[in-house]
Amino acid sequence: MSFASPIDLAALALFAPIGMALLLAAIPGLRRHGWPAAWLSVATALCTLIVSILLLLRVDVDSGPWVATTTWLRESGGTVASVGLRVDGISSTMLVIVALVATAVQVFSLGYMKQEPPSAVGRYFTYHSLFVFSMNLLVLAPNLLQFFAGWELVGLTSYLLIGFYYQKPSAGHAAVKAFWVTKFADMGLLVALLVLFATSYDFGFDVVLDPPTAIIVTLLMFLAVMGKSAQFPLHVWLPNAMEGPTPVSALLHAATMVAAGVYLLVRAFPLFQQAPVTLEFMLWVGSFTALFAAVVAVVQTDIKRVLAYSTCSQLGYMVAAVGAGSAFAGYFHLTTHAFFKALLFLAAGTVIHTVHSNELSKMGGLWRRMPITAVTFIVGALALVGIPGFSGFFSKDLILEAVAEKEQIGPLAFLVAGAFLTAFYMGRVVLLAFFGEQSPKAQHAHESGPSMTLPLLGLAVGAAVVGWFGTPLSGLLGQSYEFHWGTVGGIATLLGIAGLVLSYLVYGNHQLHPDRSVVLRQLAALARSGLVDQFYARLFHGAVIPLARIVGWVDRYLVDGVMNLTAWVALRASRRLQLVQTGNVLDYVFAVIAGVVLLAVWRIWA
Amino acid sequence: MTLSMCLYLGAALMCIGIYGVLTRKNAIGVLLSVEAMANSVNVNLVAMSRYFGGTTGQLFAIFVMTITVAEVAVGLALVILFYRALQHTTLDEATQLRH
């Protein structure tokens, strides 16, 4: 295979989606009729997938990073910024993940969006093509500046797709909330870029900095990661983001976009390594998020929100892994998580599609009605729980081992407890949705067409087996990894099984009743009250609005005041000057002659 | 007749002209004063021409006369229009420029 260089392939993977997005944006007819746009977009995604796989094979064979850049901003001193492509183990694998999940999701959407009006379908797929481009721009970025551009673009597509059902006020609010929270966090990345450039004149991922600067830069970058990857306490936007269509949740808010934060951590790991303080902070934030989100997930009644909190929690695992110093563990979990979480969301999507509700109480006993969905969902759940053999098991095991090596009991305890809770809430969802008594709505449920079941089956295979490919993946990243049983992993696995058993006792054969558990009741009340959201509301009313008032006062009375004073003075002065204009010709003549005389006097005496 | 006497005559004519322009209220009076100023320039030109020899100054004097004639023609026409519009020729009361 030598018909194209890796750079050519990467360029194709980047430009095909943007070409399609621009085409669909430029030709309204395609969009309005919906389905041509959909098929074109799916074809582009498929093309991107094929190119990405070819690229990955090439990297596998003769590895080594290929970089092609072109100058973007020039200054007399030299190049300020360049844009281009960087193809290496990390970017090529991520490219495949993005393209694969995007293709699966777009094919799935063909079925899922069938009842939407055609113009909405066209809009939907245009956004999707734009998203694939943005994500690839970010993934292939050779420096942080281009990365930032992609980072913001995925934020934009996230906003557009969350607010896809713009007629619904809650969707609009959710979109704005996601935008605000992530933009607030993105300020961190922007400032980090400025500091980085001011100190080193470089936007590279592996700049060497002096320790204080390194801490500042990495902490600021981590702020952006906390926003994008929904880490506590900036996770609040992710559950609301479930207002978007379910395939969008699968692609953006589970598999790829939220993983961009972790991707940044892995990409810029040489930077983060220079700041042990930041790594320590990441370890704590990540592990706390992993536990916190798992706790909240236990009491959610909306199937998508369970999965959303689960995504928060799993992203916490990845962040904690990088914080523990093992970027590979985090990246491995990113890979496996992309498969099983996209699968879980899509399977949940088929359920929602046929039951017409997100509420777990409206489901139940669905496995008879929709066996493929049930089986694939269970495969995803087992992978997420970390049952040996399924993909999540390997990556979670590696993370726990990496954290255990740090010999810090707090984060490790959080993560192990999180593993137990993960099993419990996933067991709960599976039992409530697919087993037990059929609710009235669930009785008319039915399996969906092949465009929805095929992506499920494909992703299920991935979710089951991708964990076995840890060793080649580590090779691509220049690491060496071999699976072996460890104490921590063993304990976590046992706890996971215990969690499943407990969930069976509570929700399966009703040995324990959920409403009788004081802990669960209290938790549910607490989760419903939305403590973090309330905190932000307080902060907003207590600090942001008063600050805005002060700024408003300064603007109104000081900034505008100076302007108004200038205008007032000019007005008064012109009123006075007006008196000179008598309109009498003789006065003007007098002025002319007086001027001449003055000039003459000045000429003679000076 | 010496050069300085001629220049004094020119200066006197100029002062009379300026005085007239500034003090006359009547438009025709002002025009007459302007003519006096123009002629003071002519006196100077001719005197200088005689003093230094050559004819440039005299030619210019004729040139100035021609232009003054044209100017007076336009000026008188304006005065007539002025009178038609306002029924008088008192410049002090012509303050329409203000509006």
Give a structural overview.
The complex is a heterodimer of chains A (606) and B (99). Chain A has 25 helices and two strands. Chain A has a two-stranded antiparallel sheet with strand order 1-2. Chain A is mainly alpha-helical and 606 residues long. In chain A, 52% of the residues are buried. The termini of chain A are far apart. With 99 residues, chain B is mainly α. Helices cover 79% and strands 0% of the residues of chain B. Chain B contains three helices and no strands. Chain B has helices at 3-23, 27-52, 56-86. Chain B is elongated and about 50 Å long. The A-B interface holds A 581-586, 588-590, 593 and B 18, 21-22, 25, 30, 91-92, 94-99.
Report the strand count of chain B: 0
| Average pLDDT figure of chain A | 85
Q: How many individual helices of chain B?
A: 3
Largest sheet of chain B: none
Largest interface, C-beta within 8 A: A-B, 10 and 13 residues
List unreliable stretches of 5+ residues of chain B.
Answer: none
Query: Rg of chain B from C-alpha positions?
Result: 17 Å
Q: What is the residue-averaged pLDDT of chain B?
A: 89
Per DSSP, what share of the residues of chain A sits in E-state strands of 2 or more residues?
under 5%
Counting helices, strands and paired strands, the structural category of chain A is mainly alpha
Secondary-structure element pattern of chain B, one letter each: HHH
Global morphology of chain A: globular
Number of strands of chain A: 2
Give a short account of the largest sheet of chain A: 2 strands, antiparallel
Which strands sit side by side, in order, in the main sheet of chain A?
1-2
